[in-house]
Amino acid sequence: MDKKPLPHPVVAIIPVVVLIGFLSIAITLFGSDSLSGGSQIALLMGMAVCVSISMSVYRVPWRTFEKQIKATLGEVSITLVILLCVGMLAGSWMISGIVPTLIYYGVQIMSPQFFLVSACIICALISVLSGSSWTTIATIGVALLGIGHALGVSEAWTAGAIISGAYFGDKMSPLSDTTILASSATGTDLFVHIQYMVYTTVPTFLITVTIFFMAGLGSNAATEVQVGEYTEGLYNTFTISLWTLLVPLLTAVLIARRVPSLIVLFASSIMAGFMALILQPHILTEISSSGSLIKGLAITFYGATAVETGNASLNELVSTSGMAGMLNTIWLIICAMCFGASMVASRMIESITGVIVRFVRSRVSLVSSTVGTGIFLNITTGDQFISIVLNADIYKEVFKKEGYESRLLSRTTEDAATVTSVLIPWNTCGMTQSTVLGVPTLTYLPYCFFNLLSPLMSIIIAAIGWKIRKVPSDKQLSTIHIPDKQ
Question: How far apart, in whole angstroms, are the C-alpha atoms of residue 224 and residue 431?
């Protein structure tokens, strides 16, 4: 891309202000439904302002924006297909009886007092093994949300526990794409990067599980009648069988063999579909309304399903939306990517972050700026992968110039860009997890303690200086006198 004039920071911030303004209007007018169209319009309006200023004032040609938009959308194309598979999996796992079976036995085994801390730890372990927060939340996360619902635990608290655990694994797993990306983008060895994250991530996770443990002790337990209504409704509606758990087991085998996420999600959906044909033909017949099992299965994969259980709240819990339920998410991601691409093509992001870099005066201000930029990029670009790469590009030379190891940059980038993406409604992660769990982003946000505390912990550790050291620059090394051996 040809280098164009760098916009003034005051001008560069205008599209962001416009975006925030329109998002505020959308949320005020539409509430939780703003993500069904209002937020997309806000993103396109922000993009329009960015493009208009750049073309009229800085003479940036439209082909520059077009080229960047094509490149950006190309980078997230696989993500969009994964989202369709996530919708397919969510529908098939529910209708096949996998999630109902997990809920049926889970509510009888798990205690309401220890549910939140258990959910957080379970999701953390699965995410570390799978390397994917998305897969973890779309599978066991959905089941845990149902168990929490049956136990009378707030869905906001449950979603917070699920997301906190899942993103711990997303950071610490050597199989995680964000972990690999952060290490490679900063030129840091993968396992050096993971080992260095221990100093900020483990304390944050310990604080998080402590909060969930204390919150669980103070929660009001569900009555036996409430739990009984759920188990009876599930038992009378679905064929509850441990055979359904073969699908999660085989899915775990695929994950352990490091099969790509897209293949795992699709294969798991197909296996669940076969399980539905064998164990839940009566449900598929009800869904198809014509007696055709294949039609019922197809609707389960792509469309909305509603199963009558005799309990209104349970009906809502077992309803699914399939691939069609992901279309709003995909629409939002496309609009977010267009806005982010326009900010990159116009060099407005570069202008804004350049101002931030100028204020770096110490180790704490350097780490704080990196954290702030990572969060800002998540807001403006709408994608954690773009945020990680841009954050690394912006600060790589700054860290090197100040004499700090690349592992400090890679860790700080993950502490900010990776974990905060799920807290932003129009970010790919925020919209995806909100859709999968059926809980609005702003509803679960206050309870995602791991995600909220990680950036703060990164700054606190920088202030303490724990395990942070400077490395000699090439110039300093050249002045070191090494005595000759006698």
Answer: 35
DSSP 137: I
Owner of token pair 């699965």? 126
403: left (phi over 0), alpha (psi -120 to 50) or beta: left
CA–CA distances in Å: residue 328 to residues 37, 39, 379: 8, 10, 18
454/459 Cα distance (integer angstroms): 9
CB 305 within 8 A of CB 91: yes
Q: Tell me 140's DSSP state.
A: I
Sequence letter at residue 416: A
pLDDT exceeds cutoff 80 at 389: no
C-alpha 369/C-alpha 96 separation (Å) is 48
Name the 3-class secondary structure at 470.
strand
By CB neighbour count within 10 A (0-12 exposed, 13-18 middle, 19+ buried), where does 308 fall? Answer: exposed
* pTM of the model as a whole: 0.70
Average pLDDT over residues 199-206: 95
Size of the chain, expressed as the number of residues it contains: 486
User: Widest CA span of the chain, in angstroms?
Assistant: 94
**Amino acid making up residue 187:** G
Residue entry with tokens 């209007």:
25
C-alpha span between 75 and 95 (Å, rounded) = 33
Nearest-angstrom CA–CA distance, 249 and 270: 14
CA atoms within 13 A on the CB side of 248: 23
Residue 483, SS3? coil
Cα–Cα distance for residue pair 1/259, rounded to 1 Å: 35
Q: How confident is the model at residue 54 (pLDDT cuts 50, 70, 90)?
A: very high
Cβ atoms of 279 and 95 within 8 Å: the answer is no
Contacts of 456 (CB under 8 A, 6+ apart): none
Structure tokens that stand for 228 in this block: 């009984």
**Sequence-ordered strand ranges (E) for 364-450:** none
* Residue 473, helix vs strand vs coil: coil
Tell me which of 10 and 401 has the higher pLDDT. 10
